[in-house]
Structure formats: C-alpha cells, structure tokens
Specification:
Protein name: Lipoprotein
Number of domains: 1
CATH class: Mainly Beta
Number of strands: 10
Strand order of the largest sheet: 6-5-4-3-2-1-10-9-8-7
CATH superfamily: Calycin beta-barrel core domain
Helix content: 10-25%
Structural class: alpha+beta
CATH topology: Lipocalin
Distance between the termini: 72 Å
Radius of gyration: 22 Å
Oligomer: single chain
CATH architecture: Beta Barrel
Largest sheet: 10 strands, antiparallel
Length: 206
C-alpha cells in the first residue's frame, strides 16, 4: 500500500525535475548569445584597432568632435573578461572615453565612462543601458536606461533620452559601435579587426 501511495509522488517529483532541467536549458540557451558576444570581444584583449566613421546622420553645421580625428579602440580591461570588459575609445588626443561592457543576470550592460584629463569623472558619465535579450553573438543593442535618462534631463540633454547604442562584432574582421535615435540620428564607427595597431596611451583615469 505504501508503495502504491508513493508512486504518484515519485512521478510528480520526476516530472518537476525534468521541467526544471528544461527551464535551465532554456535559460542557458537564452544567455548563450551574450556570453558568445563577450567571448568574441575578449578574444582581442590586449589589442588596439583603428576605426573610421561609416555613418554620421544627419549632417549639421555644428563642429563635429570626431571629424578628422584618428579613432582607436583598445580592448584593455580584461582581468575578468567573462564578467567585464573595458574598451577605451580614443578620439585623436582625447582619451576621455571608455566603453564598459558588463555581464548581467539577463544579458549585457553597456556604460560610457567619461573622464577629465586629471582622471576625475565628467558630470555626464556612466550612462548607457542593458541589452535587449537575447541579442545575437554578433550584435547587441542597448536602449537607454532610466538612470541615464534622468542624468541627461538634469544636464539639459533631452535629445539623448531616446538613445539606443549597439555593438557588432565579426571576429577578426570588424567591430562596430553605433548610436541611433528615433529622430533619424545615426552614428556608426567601424573598426578593422584584421589590422591591429600600436597601443594608445592609457585612458584618462586609467
């Protein structure tokens, strides 16, 4: 009698265990693109690459800080490359920018670390957003997060409250950094991963 009573319970436990396994597998598969993307970027740790502006729309009469400047990305901060990557983006002699890619529970997070020449943080820094899951191993998009929106509004940068950043990678071929907005703004820099260049100086703030 006891065995008969235990059978339904045992079956229920087995079913729950199988369902749990399926959930775990589904979770692992959904996370795979983020891990693959991080690994593809981390494969270039210690290397620097020159880029060019591929898209910069719409054109305005205002001076563009990128025009005529040498653009170099450096995959530099790789101490825990599965969790965080720090990629300084050098614009001529301006070494204020570093992209910070972090692995989160649900995907990736992109932040922009902006510093002054003395290493102190800029008033507008560490803005960005979390990736739209699952993304792919080649492309991840990052809509602006609420903290960044609040920062932009505080600094009278309302136009930036609709930003979406994106990164793409074709291993050993190219890396793309992109900014878009619903108003038609599109900025894209393409870096040639097939031709490493001499390492730039350390970014401001290290």
């Amino acid at each position: 009698m006891n065995v008969i009573k235990l059978l339904p319970l045992t079956g229920a436990l087995l079913l729950a265990a199988c369902n749990g396994q399926r959930d775990n597998v589904a979770h692992d598969v959904s996370q795979a693109p983020a891990d693959a993307f991080m690994a593809a970027v981390a494969a270039h740790c210690g290397e620097a690459f020159e880029g060019r502006i591929a898209v910069n729309e719409p054109k305005t009469d205002a001076p563009d800080p990128f025009d005529g400047k040498r653009l170099v990305m450096h995959v530099r901060g790789c101490e825990d490359s599965a969790h965080e990557l720090r990629i300084p983006f050098h614009v001529g002699d301006d070494h204020s920018r570093t992209w910070v890619l972090t692995r989160t529970e649900n995907g990736l997070r992109l932040k922009h670390d902006h510093r002054h020449e003395d290493g102190s943080p800029d008033a507008v820094t560490m803005y960005g957003g979390d990736s739209k899951p699952p993304g792919t191993a080649q492309r991840q998009a990052f809509p602006v997060d609420s903290d960044s929106v609040a920062m932009f509004r505080k600094d009278n940068m309302a136009v930036s409250t609709t930003n979406t950043w994106a990164m793409e990678i074709e291993p050993d071929q190219r890396f793309v950094y992109e900014l878009t907005r619903p108003d038609g703004r599109r900025f894209q820099v393409v870096f040639d991963l097939s031709k490493p260049v001499a390492l730039p100086p350390a970014p401001w703030g290290g």
